[in-house]
Structure formats: C-alpha cells, structure tokens
Amino acid sequence: MPNIPESQLVQHLIALQSRPIAAATRARLAQALLDWFTAGWSARTLPAAATLRGLAADCVPGAGTAPVFGGGVMPAMAAGFANAGIAHLREIDDAHRAAMLHPGVVAISPVLALAAVQPLSRRRVSDAIIAGYEVALRVGEALGTRHAALFHATATAGAVGAAAATGVALGLTADQLHHAMGIGATQSAGLWQLVDDDAHESKSLHPAFAVRNGMTAAFAARAGLPGARAFVTGQRGLYALLAGDGPLGALTAGFDAPECINTTTIKAWPCCAQLFTPMDATQALIDAHHPAVDDIAAVEVVIFPHALKIAGVHWPVKAAETCFSLRYVVATLLLTGQLTINATEAPDLESPALRALAQKITVATDDSFQQAFPAKRPCRVTITMRDGQRFSALRELRRGDPEDPFDWAQLQQRMRAFAPNMDDAAAQRGTDWWAGFADGGQDAQVCMPGADLF
C-alpha cells in the first residue's frame, strides 16, 4: 500500500529529519519544553503525582536512570508513563484547536525518558518531539469533532503520536516507523465516559497509557513485529471505528508548511481548554468595566455546545471537577480577579460569596457557535448590573493560540505563577536547558536531561 496517506505521513517524518529545522520551529520547540516542565513542576507535589509514581513502579518495576517529576529515577517506560500523567494533572499542558488534544504530554514524555537512559543528540531529540507533535495533531484533526466528543483524543491520536516520537528517537527505519505507528493505533483508547461517571481523577491516565502504549509499539516494531498499515483510513482503522468525521486530508496536507508544533496553544488558564474563551471574555469585561461583584445582577454565558460535553460540571463537589465547571471558574475570576492553581486544587466550594455569585450565572449554547468549532471556540459573556447596565464581550480565539501567543518572558512568568514551588535556581537551570533547543549550534551535543530538572 505505497500511496496510502499513512505511508505518505511516514515519508514526511523521514524527510523532516534530513532537512534543517527552521528557526521559528526551534523557538517553538523550546517553548513546548518550557510548557511541559511547567506542567510537571506544577503538579509534582500533588498526592495524585505520588499515586502515578507508585503506579508506574508497580507496572514497570526495577531500577532505572530516567528522572520523574517529584523525585527519583525509573526505567524509561515507567518514567514516560509517570511524567505524562503528572504533566496532565493540572490541566495546563498545551492544547490544539483542530486536533482537540494535548500534544506535549504524548510527544515529549517518551523522548526525554529515552534520552535519560541512552545517548541521544539534541537534534535526534528535537526530531523525535517534532514528529510526535506532527502525528498526534494530524491524526487528531483527521478524526474530528464527533470522535472528540466520545473519545479523549490525547489517548487515541496521542498513542500514535507517542509511537512516532519514540520511533524517531530510536532511529527506526521508515518501514519500522510505519509498523510502530500501526501498532500504537491498535492500542488507542480513552473513553469520555469517565467524565460522565465522575471519574475525573483518572483522566491523567489517558496520556500515561498513550505514552506507555506508544513506547511499547516502537520497541515492538524494532523487534520485528508488524503493525496495521492503514491504521487511520482502513476499513477497520481509527477513522471507521472511532467515530471519525474530520478531514482525512489533514494526514497529508501542508507538508511544505511549518511543522504542526507551530500551531499549538499554550494555556493561559489552569482549567479545561474548552473554557478559555469564556474566561478571556470575562477578563476583558473586568479590565474594561471593573464590575463590582455585589452590584452584579446576572451573568449570561453563551458557548459552543461541544464545550459542555467535556466541561459540563454544573458545580464541583471535589477539586478534580473544578477545571471542568464553567460556573466555578467564571465565578472565581469575577470574585477574586484571578484563577490560581490553588483555586482549582484547594477550592472553597462552600464559600457563600462564591456560591451566591455562581447562582447568578446562566449557561446556554448556540448552534451557530458550534458551526465555527473547532477552528474557533466562540463564547459571549454578558454581565447585567443591578442598575440595568449591560456589558458584553465575544471571544472566538484564546489567549495563547497561535494568533495571540506568549513570548519567552511571558512564558517564564507563567511558569513561576503556575509552579510556585519552583525556586530561582531550578527556574534558571531549566531556562538554560530549554533555551538550548533554539540554538542549532547545539544539535550535535548529547541531550541528557538531568534529575535536577525534575
């Protein structure tokens, strides 16, 4: 099947490794690494992080040299599993509008785990991470919105992306890389039923399992095992069986355009990315009109329907649900002027002032907004004051989207805000290491992520 889209995608990954990496892509890779470490450091001391480290040790026992967020070293497979889960705990890892998934946790986690146990050049690590983003985002966009409403694409498309990232890191041939991605695709899973059944705490297992399965797939392909060839487009491939309805052309379109890593979103808020446009709109109203909370009569939020399929918690009953409750995050922002990590991790859900304000918030959906999804995430927030004044703001794109990006200095400020347990010395060590990926002169150096980065 030499001309199927999957084969063309594999050849694209091989070609990327033989041509110079553009300066803009190098800079974006450094930002992606900063973002991944920010997410991991932000969550490293949580009880859930300890649970993930323990689970990784149970599943892949034995000594190792790959560092894990929060301390200690493990075998590469265990470290990839644990770090992917930990970096997803706070819901601040990067995202993507069209693919509707979190690419960094599945692309970066396996590669840095491998780099800690075997000598890989910075160029090999760069190529592998870029490949992971390329595959996860292309497959996720092809699977589309119907798929994303039923499955967590970080777990489905993400497993294929993790296989690609691992395969490139291992130096697989084109044929082996194709097999690795095919094996990874057969292990794609991640049901949104866990949200319906109030099992939000297990969501971090989706990227963890995607990385474990993707790494296993690449090792299996290196060992000579074959994988599905038409793993997306076949009669029993991902598209047919996992409710695909997106553009299959996404698998092969724009090979001459900048790499997909350049199209990701870095999160501005510590909550589900489906809720960013209402948060941005609310912030715009606060900045423009400074509404006094006691004088607010009503807040109306009109949003695209897909958002509530994932972030539809009416009011949280536990911390793990705060990131998925529109009323909670908007009320918190209006009441306190910010949404901090602590507000999602240690919320005062019985606060009389917070609950009183939340009761003034109504949430509705607009089918015309859904028509713009996923290219845009439209939301309109309208605040009505007791004296009859009405303030309204419409947001279609999110702060941190490619059209409204953070710069390097802003990302460092974001890191310190989202990871307050990171001291100055750790921040400087990390900044120096991540920034090195923007420098092509360091390509030949061995990339050894030290334990002091974690």
Structural commentary:
This protein has 454 residues and is of the alpha+beta class. The protein folds into two domains: 5-267 and 405-453, 2-methylcitrate dehydratase PrpD; 273-395, 2-Layer Sandwich (60s Ribosomal Protein L30, Chain: A). The chain is 50% helix and 7% strand. The protein has helices at residues 5-16, 23-43, 47-59, 76-86, 103-115, 122-150, 153-169, 174-186, 193-196, 205-222, 238-241, 276-289, 306-310, 326-336, 341-345, 352-358, 367-372, 408-418, 424-435, and strands at residues 66-67, 73-74, 296-303, 361-365, 379-385, 390-395. Strands 4-3-5-6 form a four-stranded mixed β-sheet. A hairpin with a 5-residue loop joins strand 1 (66-67) and strand 2 (73-74). It is globular and about 70 Å long.
Summarize the model shown.
The protein is built from 19 helices and 6 strands. It has 454 residues and is of the alpha+beta class.
Number of helices: 19
Range of strand content: 5-15%
Whole-number radius of gyration? 21 Å
Order of helices and strands: HHHEEHHHHHHHHHEHHHHEHEEHH
> How many E strands?
6
Strand order of the largest sheet: 4-3-5-6
